[in-house]
């Protein structure tokens, strides 16, 4: 089973909207573990930015042809992290880093679809702006969106056996 290490959402302007690590424990007291967690988060942030380079390069077209895909692509593998990506019709880029085991591509597409649906549900919520003029960037930094993404990742861990 491939373990999800991080999920990131990046705007059409290549601005990171959301990056969440799923292999770090923020509630630890040991300083060396805290340092390792911080290093992992920085690594995942860097891998998300590397994925942007792949999205914008002409190589991405040949990747689509090689993988015979019109959606989710394996962008690269770096430091035992397989980085998959999807660019939606509106320019949103969804990037997911997974452990070293290769998952079934059908389940990866379902994962990306669920993440995209969660994003759309959050952004298109008509009641979200009632609380004081939130913009779309702020909506993704809420506990409910974070819990929704965490739930998708937890369900992935249970179903991808």
UniProtKB/TrEMBL annotation:
GO terms for biological process: endoplasmic reticulum to Golgi vesicle-mediated transport. It comes from the Eukaryota. Gene3D superfamilies: 3.30.450.70. InterPro entries: Longin-like_dom_sf, Sedlin. GO terms for cellular component: cytoplasm. PANTHER family: TRAFFICKING PROTEIN PARTICLE COMPLEX SUBUNIT 2. This is CIC11C00000004764.
């Amino acid at each position: 089973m491939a373990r999800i290490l991080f999920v990131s959402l990046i705007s059409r302007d290549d601005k990171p909207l959301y990056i969440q690590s799923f292999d770090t424990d923020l509630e630890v007291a040991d300083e060396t573990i805290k340092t390792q967690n911080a290093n992992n988060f920085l690594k995942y942030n860097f891998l998300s930015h590397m994925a942007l380079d792949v999205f914008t390069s002409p190589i991405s077209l040949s990747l689509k042809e090689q993988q015979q895909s019109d959606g989710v692509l394996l962008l690269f593998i770096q430091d035992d992290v397989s980085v998959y990506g999807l660019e939606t019709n509106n320019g949103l880029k969804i990037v997911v880093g997974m452990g070293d085991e290769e998952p079934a591509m059908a389940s990866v597409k379902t994962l990306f679809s669920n993440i995209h649906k969660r994003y759309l549900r959050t952004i298109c919520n008509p009641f979200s702006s009632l609380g004081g003029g939130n913009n779309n960037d702020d909506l993704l930094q809420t506990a409910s969106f974070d819990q929704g993404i965490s739930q998708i990742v937890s369900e992935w861990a249970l179903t991808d056996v």
